[in-house]
Amino acid sequence: MAEHGQGHGHHGHGGQMTPEQQMQMIQQDIRLAKNLGQIKHKIVVMSGKGGVGKSTVAANIAETLQAMGYKTGILDADIHGPNVPKMLGIEMLEEEFNQYQFDKFKELVEAGLDTSLPEEEQREYIENQRKEYQHSIFPVTTASGLKVMSMAFLIDALDRPIIWRGPQKTGAIKQLVSDCHWGKLDFLIIDNPPGTGDEPLTVLQTIPEADLVLMVTTPNVVSQEDVLKCVKMVEMMNIKNIGLIENMAYYICPHCNEKLNIFGEGNGEKFAEEMEITYLGDLPIEEKVSDAPNKEGTISVLDPSDEVSKRFVEIIEDIKKEFLE
């Protein structure tokens, strides 16, 4: 990602784009269309506020899809809090990611290079490949085969804040979508930052043909009020397929098996009916789920037999039934 999101939104003097900038934008749109054309299904995960477990849901859905045999990628679109890699057990900063890019390109070239050709033709082939992939960003592939892209790979230290204004953020997100070399995928999961600001708006505009926008909420009334705003925003963009998951809906006491409603009585199904969107079920609070990133993975990978892992399989089956068949 050569520009690291910089230079976007600056269209010359007086807001006019130069011919060169216009050509760059056209070329990016071509790459975007080509990229998205290789992905069968796109699911955008959203929430009205932070702290509701949206990224946990997105990461587990992605890993569960991969485990079910679907070629899956996940895009962490949260510029300021890119946590998806950590949840998937990936520790990679800018220097290592740059080396990863070189290694992936080398691997790609060597796979297609005919070493029996004269040296001049081999050099020509390598140069043509360099030109073809000069804008490409190769996503990181996990042990399960899941492809991952995040701003977390583009910072040089874990405590490095990204202090950008709107145009830089929206430009970076569009570049991640258009230039990430996903290849052919069955599913791309996009983990949006919370709210209705520049970043989630850019994702929805860049991927207007999303198969599903999946809202994550908790039984808390504040969370639900914020999700309502997100639903209205998505509807204003003429996206009809909207689903709801109620996370942290209850807690099962490990000592007496009593079901406790820590954040209040769950009413996700009723809430979804009122908004006229599809209810896809609830998820409990479970210590193993919150502790999973400390053990370098999601609960669906670390313990597929866990009740929460089974719930993610059920949720995916419901998604397929409601929106993809």
TrEMBL record:
PROSITE patterns: MRP. SUPFAM superfamilies: P-loop containing nucleoside triphosphate hydrolases. GO terms for molecular function: 4 iron, 4 sulfur cluster binding; ATP binding; ATP hydrolysis activity; ATP-dependent FeS chaperone activity; metal ion binding. Keywords: ATP-binding, Hydrolase, Iron, Iron-sulfur, Metal-binding, Nucleotide-binding. ATP binds at residues 48-55. One of its GO terms (biological process) is iron-sulfur cluster assembly. Binds and transfers iron-sulfur (Fe-S) clusters to target apoproteins. Can hydrolyze ATP. It comes from the Archaea. PANTHER family: IRON-SULFUR PROTEIN NUBPL (PTHR42961). Belongs to the Mrp/NBP35 ATP-binding proteins family. The keyword Signal does not apply. The keyword Ligase does not apply. The gene is minD. Homodimer. This is Iron-sulfur cluster carrier protein.
